[in-house]
């Protein structure tokens, strides 16, 4: 449900100059009529994002990301569309009355309150006499008072009823305390889940405490870590530790370092490496991949230096690469994890290691050498084939550089290696041409809809010359374009994108069309070319449909009563062929 009116959104959009707003995020340089900058939504080294002051739209001609000023802020800040509208309104100084929809938060309001209150109890415990030993342990690991406060680190007393008693005195329901994983319920009473442990809060993407990690500190021979179980507010697969704290530093450094444990993340953060996130394990979920993907920065994998960490580096790296995330790798030497490395070699050596991270491709090529005797011809051939497979979907320059390197390193004929890659490329080009030919209708339909969303005069031409598109979602969009023009008297793409954001039936299609837009001037002759092509394509489909109906009407028992229908359909075919 929209909470800000279309009129207000249009007012904000008209007041906000897209060039000025985007310039706050990335440098822009004027070239001709438009401005250009390095696209923040993919690994861009040449300015491939164009910003049109005239149309108040942006477009990347490599990754196809495009839209209006709200779209840019939404995707760059990784916030909702309405939140982007509010942010832009504040930048341009337009007062706006907006109350976020907190329906889900309201549903679990009590659970969040219990977790917040518990966090404060643990913090107080750490500063008590009983927490002195735990605090000394943190100080020895260079976790300062400021870091303790920033991460809200606390201490669970060595008492199996302490937290239970405090929460019950606050009149929190027993079932809710049990539900968020703080106690073990036993009939009408309960026992503290965490005892005699340093308590590290786990926050969601908005910074709310949803769970805890309890860590031993006095060398007891028990489980090193205990984590909150899955609860209604804590789904481990949806959480990346330190996301809320690290986000501004990730933007600043244009990269995120991904480690296994939350103690590694805290230790790095305390040492000044603040663009750090933790998976809290070695597996990665599709939800976590989406979170990392939306950051649109390279992810530097720094998982533990053991066999499990190496397997995880491959598994996590492969999944991120499949999802078009840029991945670099650091395999620490002479230390199991970042925490141990910093203690052993110091923070400066650690920062140097980060600067010298490998690309994921270099890491994989080195990894493929493991357990292979490259002096053995058979194993060398196997290795080269695996490397060529890795290179198969890379760009031509990358292929060229690596093929030359392999050729020189192993004394293999360069042309023979290149032929292996070229053969596969030729097949892919044939497939692509076939797909383009098949999508002729879609290309023309999207361009016609793009014109109609940009200027109302093209809707009039469409209605006079064609008046119909074959797909239901396209017809829905035409109806909304007509309604929008009746409502506002005119239309432009920058405003219509905002309007479409609140209509599920057309939002996806408008986004697809925006991805295919260009900043070429709108041209009535070009528009008519698209209309004429669509007319021919639709007419041919109509003829096929009529022929099918005739064929179905030739059953012997129906011939006499359907003969007039057949004559009528035949005349329609003749008329349609004349049109084509």
SSE map:
Layout: H1 6-15, H2 18-23, E1 29-31, E2 34-37, E3 49-52, E4 57-60, E5 66-67, H3 69-77, H4 81-92, H5 103-107, H6 109-126, H7 132-140, H8 145-150, E6 154-156, H9 162-169, H10 174-179, E7 183-186, E8 189-192, E9 197-203, E10 209-215, E11 225-227, H11 243-253, E12 256-259, H12 262-270, E13 276-278, H13 286-295, E14 299-301, H14 307-322, E15 327-329, H15 338-345, H16 347-355, E16 358-359, H17 360-367, H18 377-391, H19 396-410, H20 414-438, H21 440-454, H22 457-465, H23 472-488, H24 493-500, H25 504-515, H26 524-552, H27 559-579
Parallel strand pairs: 12-13, 12-14, 14-15
Antiparallel strand pairs: 1-2, 2-3, 3-4, 4-5, 6-9, 7-8, 9-10, 10-11, 15-16
Keywords:
580 residues; alpha+beta; DNA Primase, Chain A; DNA primase DNAg catalytic core, N-terminal domain; Dna Topoisomerase Vi A Subunit, Chain: A, domain 2; 5 domains; 5-stranded antiparallel β-sheet; 5-stranded mixed β-sheet; 27 helices; 16 strands; globular
Oligomeric category: single chain
Helical residues, percent = 55-70%
What is the CA-based Rg, rounded?
A: 31 Å
Count every helix, treating DSSP H or I runs of 4 or more residues as helices.
27
DSSP strand tally: 16
Second rung of CATH, namely the architecture of the largest domain: Orthogonal Bundle
Estimated share of beta-strand residues: 5-15%
CATH class term of the largest domain? Mainly Alpha
- Regions with pLDDT < 50 over 5+ consecutive residues? 423-438
Strand order of the largest sheet: 1-2-3-4-5
**Describe the biggest sheet?**
5 strands, antiparallel
């Amino acid at each position: 449900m929209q909470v800000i009116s279309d009129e207000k959104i249009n007012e904000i959009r008209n007041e906000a100059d897209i060039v000025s707003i985007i310039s706050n995020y990335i440098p822009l340089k004027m070239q001709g009529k438009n401005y250009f900058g390095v696209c923040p939504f993919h690994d861009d080294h040449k300015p491939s994002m164009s910003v049109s002051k005239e149309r108040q739209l942006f477009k990347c001609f490599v990754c196809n990301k495009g839209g209006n000023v709200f779209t840019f802020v939404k995707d760059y800040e990784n916030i909702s569309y309405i939140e982007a509208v509010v942010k832009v309104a504040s930048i341009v100084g337009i007062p706006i009355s907006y109350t976020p929809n907190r329906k889900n938060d309201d549903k679990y309001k009590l659970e969040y309150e219990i977790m917040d209150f518990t966090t404060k109890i643990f913090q107080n415990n750490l500063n008590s006499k009983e927490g002195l030993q735990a605090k000394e342990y943190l100080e020895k690991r260079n976790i300062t008072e400021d870091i303790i406060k920033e991460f809200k680190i606390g201490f669970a007393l060595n008492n199996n009823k302490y937290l239970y008693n405090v929460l019950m005195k606050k009149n929190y329901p027993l079932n809710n305390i049990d539900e968020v994983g703080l106690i073990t319920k036993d009939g009408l009473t309960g026992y503290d889940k965490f005892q005699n442990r340093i308590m590290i809060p786990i926050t969601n993407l908005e910074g709310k405490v949803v769970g805890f990690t309890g860590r031993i500190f006095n060398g007891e021979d028990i489980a090193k870590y205990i984590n909150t179980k899955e609860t209604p507010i804590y789904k481990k697969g949806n959480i990346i530790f330190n996301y809320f704290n690290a986000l501004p530093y990730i933007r600043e450094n244009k990269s995120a370092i991904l480690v296994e444990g939350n103690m590694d993340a805290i230790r790095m953060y305390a040492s000044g490496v603040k663009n750090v996130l933790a998976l809290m394990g070695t597996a990665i979920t599709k939800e976590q991949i989406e979170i990392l993907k939306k950051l649109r920065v390279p992810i530097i994998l720094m998982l533990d230096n053991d066999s499990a960490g190496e397997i995880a580096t491959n598994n996590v790296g492969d999944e991120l690469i499949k999802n078009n995330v840029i991945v670099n790798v650091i395999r620490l030497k002479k230390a199991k994890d970042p925490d141990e490395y910093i203690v052993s070699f110091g923070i400066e050596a650690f920062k140097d290691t980060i600067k010298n991270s490998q690309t994921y491709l270099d890491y994989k090529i080195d990894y493929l050498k493991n357990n292979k005797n490259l002096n053995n011809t058979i194993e060398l051939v196997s290795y080269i084939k695996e490397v060529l497979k890795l290179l198969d979907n890379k760009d031509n320059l990358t292929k060229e550089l690596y093929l030359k390197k392999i050729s020189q390193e192993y004394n293999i004929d360069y042309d023979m290696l290149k032929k292996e890659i070229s053969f596969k490329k030729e097949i892919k080009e044939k497939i692509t041409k076939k797909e383009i030919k098949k999508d002729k209708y879609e290309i023309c339909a999207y361009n016609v809809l793009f014109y109609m969303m940009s200027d109302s005069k093209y809707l009039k031409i469409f209605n006079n010359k064609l008046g119909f598109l074959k797909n239901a979602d396209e017809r829905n969009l035409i109806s909304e374009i007509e309604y929008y023009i009746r409502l506002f008297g005119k239309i432009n793409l920058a405003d219509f994108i905002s309007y479409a954001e609140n209509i599920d039936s057309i939002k996806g299609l408008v986004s697809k069309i925006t991805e295919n837009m260009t900043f070429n001037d709108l041209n009535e002759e070009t528009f008519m070319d698209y209309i004429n092509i669509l007319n021919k394509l639709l007419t041919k489909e109509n003829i096929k449909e009529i022929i099918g109906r005739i064929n179905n009407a030739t059953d012997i028992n129906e011939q006499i009563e359907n003969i007039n229908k057949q004559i009528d359909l035949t005349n329609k075919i003749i008329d349609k062929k004349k049109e084509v």
